[in-house]
Amino acid sequence: MAAGLVVLCGTSFSGKSTVARELARRLPARVVSLDEINERRGLWGGDGIPVEEWGRTHRIAQAEVLELLGSGVAVVVDDTSSPRFLRDGWRALAAEAGVEFRLVYVEADEATVRARRESNRLSPSRRDVTDAVLDQHLAAFEPPDPDEGALSVDQLWNVLR
């Protein structure tokens, strides 16, 4: 798999950050995490963030990604990447930068997501997501459509072999 821009898509607690770190190691690539950008900005999505602030965070991420791609560095974007217009935007950015684009769907069912969140509450490895924010997130999440050509995590690892 030629490195360029890899965008992860999945719900909270689906395993995106774990996949991002491993993918960055294997390619090699740099991870641009929207959660990390929010933290730098003093925001945390698990508490709920106004849509205008998410827009600002997304624009910061786009600028960081363009800078890295422009210097020849492959990038993995760690974000839920929902709704679809965000994924389409990343695809257009990759085309503008002249790099290959890959979308990876890190899928986890609701029971798994909720179990991981509860486990994290008992032994925190990341900040919590409130019940209300998680409920809204799961209800509004838009998984990739077939025409987006998303790879599953298993397909991704097979491509990288």
TrEMBL record:
Pfam families: AAA_33 (PF13671). Signal peptide: none annotated. It comes from the Bacteria. Transmembrane segments: none annotated. InterPro entries: Cell-binding_unc_protein, P-loop_ATP/GTP-bd_All4644_prd, P-loop_NTPase. This is Kinase. It comes from Kribbella karoonensis. The lineage of its organism: Bacteria, Bacillati, Actinomycetota, Actinomycetes, Propionibacteriales.
